[in-house]
Design brief:
Length: 139
């Protein structure tokens, strides 16, 4: 399996470190980290990511705005919303905007890794699907 290209976006630096360590242990990847929505969007414009773990409540550009801008750059990137300040409304909005899933920080750390793995598998399937469609069109 190719190594996942992962970006973690959260203004809590300690949490980013913990998540980075966990993803490294579980998947052998060293995630990139952004501490703001603006920084994340700049990074997504410069590098292709498979999965983004994205906080909602951040100063400046919040997670919902960041999700929209990430999807504007590359619709195939899978975004897992990871928040401690979520509501049913933000969950529904994130799903409508194209988030892969929505995990609550309070009790969701064990749920995060399976969601990231599922998001990565979907990202790879989309990549293969688009490649197959392009090959079929030109064959």
């Amino acid at each position: 399996m190719d190594k996942m290209k992962l970006l973690i976006v959260d203004d809590e630096k300690d949490l980013c470190r913990i998540l980075s360590d966990r993803m490294n242990i579980l998947y052998g990847v060293t995630p990139d980290v952004a501490f703001s929505g603006d920084e994340a969007v700049d990074m997504v414009k410069k590098k292709v990511y498979d999965v983004v773990i994205l906080d909602i409540d951040m100063p400046g550009m919040n997670g919902m705005e960041t999700l929209q801008k990430i999807k504007d750059v590359n619709k195939k990137i899978q975004v897992v919303m990871f928040t401690g300040h979520g509501t049913d409304e933000t969950r529904r909005m994130a799903e409508v905007m194209g988030a892969f899933s929505y995990v609550d920080k309070i009790d969701g750390l064990p749920k995060l890794a399976p969601m990231v793995e599922g998001a990565y598998k979907l990202r790879k399937m989309l990549e293969d699907t688009y490649a197959d469609a392009a090959l079929n069109e030109y064959s």
